[in-house]
Predict the 3D structure of the following.
Amino acid sequence: MSQAGVKPSQELRLILTDTTGNVKMTGKVVWASFEIPPNSGPRYRAGVELVDADTEAVDAFIQRHTVQK
């Protein structure tokens, strides 16, 4: 989700940040929609294809932020 407008085929710089550090990558918007949810401001929701992500670093980030049941 983003408050800034995004559109299909747009390239984005993405950064996943936590106490361990940053994981930087490039992504390409595959789809995007504009929405105004109740009790909130307007925003864009988008599906992003990761172009040059370090898959091991992304997987480690996901593991650190996954709630175990």
